[in-house]
Amino acid sequence: MNAPFPLSAETVSVVDLRDPGEVARIEAFVAERSGSIFHQPKWLRAVENSTGQKATGLVAEKCGNLTGWLPLSEVHSAIFGRALVSSGFAVGGGPLADSDKTSQRLCRFAEELAVRTSCPTIELRGGTAPAGWQICEHSHAGFVTELAEDDEQQLLAIPRKQRAEIRKSLKLDLHVSVGCNEEDRAAHYAVYSESVRNLGTPVFPRALFDAMLDEFAGAADILTIRHNGVPVASVLSFYHDDTVMPFWGGGVFAARNLRANERMYFELMLHARKRGMERFDFGRSKTGSGPYNYKKNWGFEPQPLSYASWTAPGHRKRDINPNSEAYSAKIELWKRLPLKLANMIGPVIAKGLA
């Protein structure tokens, strides 16, 4: 006869995110552990509803209480393969747990889940990974700083050279608007899609942005800069844990001469402080890249981010790195595509870039 299962043992299981009770338990756990916005079940829900990438996750519990949570998007792509990603379309996530031991237990269970779901790769964007996983600590950096007490101090907190660019933008005839209505959403997508096409990157489906704005209603908005009534720069931002996170933003070609991107981020700093935010999270950038240096020009100090991945034996790790040699020619070709065509086929491809 088998010995009885100890009541105090920690267990791990796949969560049913269609169960409101389970979702409520996870939301409470994330709040108690000061988890990121990417740990929230509604982030996964927005991804699934807009791109079809299945929302799932693992919970660890002991004596009926949650001790760990690993949010996962089950990503499938004809081009980029299949993977379990924590979390899809995010820059953070990873296991959120009471201990490193629980984090590692979640990851080991994720290995089993990956095999069962034919996902040869697991990607963690943060958190603690077990031995044997590939750890990357220098590929990306995050940029976070405190917001100043008032508008003038905010301007003075920015290094002189970058401050001069902002002062030039303040003298130009640029209009600033903030909102979440259809006009705001359409303006943002028009600017963002052109911006990423110019960088050689397929644009995400507009449905992804709509889903995020709807799920995070009251905690997300769009700030747009217009010149002569035409949108030239726009950013979709999230507000979480007293921090503003400009997440999907960009500008058209005209934005450079107008210093519209500089104006956009400066105005977002002012707007965020009025909303009660205390920090500005400029997001992640690849180490040494143009965006990485741009953020340093604003006076932000880069903080290395730790990512981890696991690849099933006999398989290759999926490659979605735009700096990879495999994609260099494709990126140059994409930059030359007509915008209408890029916006037609880009979302189909970009669904797999979660």
Automatic annotation (TrEMBL):
Pfam families: Acetyltransf_6. Residues 161-296 form the BioF2-like acetyltransferase domain. InterPro entries: Acyl_CoA_acyltransferase, BioF2-like_GNAT_dom, PEP-CTERM_FemAB-rel, PG_Glycine_Bridge_Synth. This is FemAB family PEP-CTERM system-associated protein. It comes from Pontixanthobacter aquaemixtae.
